[in-house]
Amino acid sequence: MSTTDTSALPDYAPVPRSALGPALNEQGYYVSRVERNLYWITDGTYQSAFLTTSDGVVLLDAPPTIGHNIQRAVDEIASANGVSNKVTHLIYSHHHADHAGASSLFDKNVTRIGHEETRRLLLRDDDPARPPNEETFQDHRTLEIGGERIDLAWHGANHSPDNIIIHLPDHNTLMLIDIVNPGWAPVYVSNLTEDIPGYIEAPANALAYSWKHFIGGHLGRLGTRDDVTLHQQYMADISESSRKAIDTVDPTRYFVKYGENMWAAVKGYLDEVTAVAAAPVIEKYTGVLAAADVFTESTTFWVMESIRLDLGYGSQVHP
Ligand SMILES: [Zn+2]
Q: By the number of CB atoms within 10 A of the CB, which of 11, 135, 160, 224 ranks highest?
């Protein structure tokens, strides 16, 4: 098979138009106003945002895929509005390289702000692309930069141990990365989540704030409260279907077939639980959330394992 032969690759359901965002420019980015002096940037896969203030620009995340286009987008907006294009502050949503890996492009004088766990993890990871944030907080911190208010809050581990909510109450906006991908299903294992109970709870924490615009960090468009509610329902459906599958799938034949190869039996059984749990969810959300048919099984596997391991569901003590 040649490297350009696609005939053996699987087909998937079409992406609903509602999942897609605006077209990118020649340099491969799109920048636009969210509200007032808050702007967002996308390269179609990743998102970042920035506030132009009288004290300089406050950048919210620096994904490496957007990279040098971050400063180009800032320059474009700053020159159109006659304001400073100097990035003076960078807020980290969490420590992951795919959202922070362009941090070192910004000047050594930039003030980096994030959760104390973000600093600890960045010191551990020791990646020159992601200088650790000098400024930290534990649960809540309100920033006033150039007269603009930014509320930072940590509600516990979810996608990562250090993932925070960035609320801009005067811009009707909430930024929460790697939880809800507006219009799309989560990618592998619930958006590569470390703490599933925290991940499932996160949309309710977000919805408890007052906001209209949602910055989720991924894909090509902003989100709404309805996007967050739809994602919440999708995850609830996966949880409910997983419990049913745990209750109904019988593992006996896998242990009969594989004998002393315990891991082969476990794999056969848990793969069947996952497939049985995912099937009705894939059917319900195909055409509603893009790539529901691509990643729902992977997400369901991880949710089902959390139901077994975190919640103890279906677990029995030997008599
Ligand atoms: Zn992440």
A: 160
Of the CA atoms within 13 Å of residue 264, those in its CB half-sphere come to: 9
CA of 99 to the centre of ligand 1 (A): 7
Residue 178 Cα, ligand 1 centroid: separation in angstroms?
6
Residue 93 CA to ligand 1 center (angstroms) comes to: 9
Domain membership flag for residue 202: yes
Q: Tell me the CA–centroid distance for residue 80 and ligand 1, in Å.
A: 32
Kindly state whether residue 84 falls inside one of the protein's structural domains.
Answer: yes
pLDDT in tens, 276-288: 999 999 999 999 9
**Phi and psi at residue 210, in whole multiples of 5°?**
-90, 120
Q: What is the CATH number of the domain that holds 31?
A: 3.60.15.10
User: How remote is the CA of residue 140 from the centroid of ligand 1, in Å?
Assistant: 20
What are the pLDDT digits (tens) for 20-56? 999 999 999 999 999 999 999 999 999 999 999 988 9
Q: How far is the CA of 91 from the centre of ligand 1 (A)?
A: 14
State whether 295 and 220 are in the same domain. Answer: no
Q: How far is CA 307 from CA 115, 291, 310, 311, 313, in A?
A: 28, 24, 6, 5, 6
Parallel, antiparallel or unpaired: strands 135-137 and 111-115: parallel
pTM of the model: 0.96
